[in-house]
Specification:
- The chain has 492 residues and is α/β, with parallel strands linked by helices.
- It has 15 helices and 20 strands.
- The strands form 5 sheets. The chain has a 7-stranded mixed β-sheet, with helices on both faces. A 6-stranded mixed β-sheet has the order 9-8-7-10-11-19, sandwiched between helices. It has a 3-stranded antiparallel β-sheet with strand order 5-6-20, with no helix packed on it.
- α5 links the parallel β7 and β8.
- The N and C termini lie far apart (78 Å).
- Nicotinamide-adenine-dinucleotide binds next to α7 and α8.
Length: 492
């Protein structure tokens, strides 16, 4: 099936083909066409023309909101098919994929509502004859570049606000997991997006991502992915001084004080880090535990980690799927080997599973490492896999210092039954999202994004719409009078 969509037409692309691999067993899910630089050019030209001269420019915010609502309805109609495809593509469980589709639907509905209520503002300048207005206009042609871990979800955080604001876009999903992004573009077309408004090109970062971000007709790049790619995109955007939104990695602390119920702490330590095999930007990969509770909690987490059921994301009873690729598993194995060589203690996992039926997939057992410290690579770098490291603290100040001792700043959590302490710690943590006695929840109406090397800007919420807008000031003097500034006479 043709998988590139350019100017309202489905096409195979001129960059050859690529196999999309099922991480559960290494089989080919689908073979998709790839774009070349010429396809990127055509997609950007289509988006440019649709923005500059097409009917899209004349749509009202209410009409764009209606389009988003129709996409949401189609997502509900196709939920099972999309969730099934997401599981085949990423390996995550069907339960997780269904939640993703529900979340994506909610994001489209949220921005449909916000589009219609976002009217700009009038500024009172204290002069009755002056009308001063700040109007919200679209930025223009947006390149939307997404990672492989939450392909559909991450795309929705970009495409829904971009369209709500009146932009046109060229989407480039990860070459590893492109399938549900193609399905979403099909729904946008079915919902009535005019030709050129939504385009999608498939391919890798070098042959498709880079020419797209560097293209002189692209006004904005919205990127979610790894730190090194984000830095390359920031450098590449300098010549054109493009608008940028970058959502990068995280190294997220999960801080547990000893007044937390042990069962609750153990249960959520696992959920925080091992969901989607740890391939979550906000995964609670660094457990930071008060010393008096440390040994008992670590033993209980280790016991439960060994019980986690690995398997096909499509099978009933599977609690965790595989890693996305063999290369990614190699990377995880090297993190564990380095940590053990540096003195970490293996509490659980640290190996591939023994079950013969999992041998063809990219599985790795959920791994718990104790006695870890700040100088280890496993603490400093984002592993993006099923590795939980444990550190200890004795005072609240030490807990905060450890939680902030990272060059990232995406998310973190604090567990305690002392509410004053909970809010003190939440306030002191330099991370874009902090959960108190919880982990993972997000809502479309609340901003998401990182501090420090986790990125610039925010997705979701009203700020997530503002990312895709120019806020223009229009000053109207209804009773103009001569300024008399230049009269040729000396000023007194
Ligand atoms: P990646 O950086 O390897 O790739 C992301 C996307 O960028 C892909 O589509 C890729 O093809 C493209 N790309 C690669 N090189 C490019 C270039 N030079 N120019 C333009 N595009 C290029 O990241 P990944 O491995 O797909 O995803 C994992 C990373 O994403 C992790 O670091 C994770 O933390 C991060 N992530 C962050 C968030 C967040 O909300 N902050 C959410 C999900 C994932």
């Amino acid at each position: 099936m043709a998988s590139l969509y350019i100017d309202g037409q489905w096409t195979d692309g001129s960059g050859g083909t690529s196999d999309v691999i099922n991480p559960f067993d290494g089989s080919v899910v689908e073979t998709v066409g790839q774009a070349d630089a010429g396809d990127v050019d055509r997609a950007v030209a289509a988006a440019r023309a649709a923005f500059d001269t097409g009917p899209w420019r004349g749509t009202t915010a209410a009409e764009r909101g209606e389009l988003l609502r129709r996409v949401a309805d189609l997502l509900v109609r196709d939920k099972e098919h999309i969730a099934h495809t997401e599981t085949l593509d990423t390996g995550k469980t069907l339960a997780e994929s269904r939640i993703d589709v529900d979340d994506v639907t909610a994001v489209f509905r949220y921005y449909a509502d916000l589009a219609g209520s976002d009217a700009g503002r009038v500024v009172d300048v204290g002069q009755a004859h002056v009308l001063s207005r700040v109007v919200h206009e679209p930025v223009g042609v947006c390149a939307l570049i997404t990672p492989w871990n939450y392909p559909l979800l991450q795309l929705s955080w970009k495409v829904a606000p971009a369209l709500a604001a009146g932009n046109t876009c060229v989407i480039k999903p990860s070459e590893v997991t492109p399938l549900t992004s193609v399905l979403l573009v099909r729904l946008c077309a079915e919902a009535g997006a005019p030709a050129g408004v939504v385009n999608i090109v498939l391919g890798d970062g070098r042959s498709v991502g880079a020419p797209l971000t560097e293209h002189r007709c692209v006004d904005m790049v919205s990127f979610t992915g790894g730190l090194a790619t984000g830095q390359a995109i920031i450098r590449a955007s300098a010549a054109g001084v493009k608008r940028l939104a970058v959502e990068l990695g995280g190294k997220n602390p999960n801080i547990v004080f000893a007044d937390t119920d042990l069962d609750l702490a153990a249960d959520w330590a696992l959920t925080a880090v091992f969901l989607h095999a740890g391939q979550v930007c906000s995964a609670g990969a660094r457990l930071i535990v008060e010393e008096s509770m440390h040994d008992e909690l670590v033993a209980e987490i280790g016991r439960r980690a060994e019980l986690i059921r690995l398997g096909s994301g499509l099978a009933e009873g599977t609690e965790s799927g595989p890693l996305v690729s063999a290369a990614h598993r190699d990377k995880i194995e090297s993190f564990v080997a380095d940590a053990l060589a540096d003195g970490a203690r293996l509490v659980a996992g640290g190996r591939r599973p023994d079950e013969p039926e999992l041998a063809d997939g990219f599985f790795y057992r959920p791994t718990v490492l104790a006695d870890t410290h700040r100088d280890m690579r496993v603490i400093r770098e984002e592993t993006f896999g099923p590795i939980l490291t444990v550190e200890k603290f004795t005072t609240e100040a030490e807990a905060v210092a450890l939680g902030n001792d990272t060059s990232y700043g995406l998310a973190g959590a604090v567990w305690t039954s002392d509410m004053a302490r909970a809010h003190r710690v939440a306030g002191a943590l330099r991370h874009g999202t902090v959960w108190i006695n919880d982990f993972h929840p997000y809502v479309p109406g609340a901003e998401w994004g990182g501090m420090k090397r986790s990125g610039n800007g925010r997705e979701l919420g009203p700020t997530g719409l503002a990312e895709y807008q120019e806020h223009k000031h229009i000053w109207h003097n209804t009773a103009p009078a001569p300024a008399r500034w230049f009269t040729g006479e000396a000023r007194s």
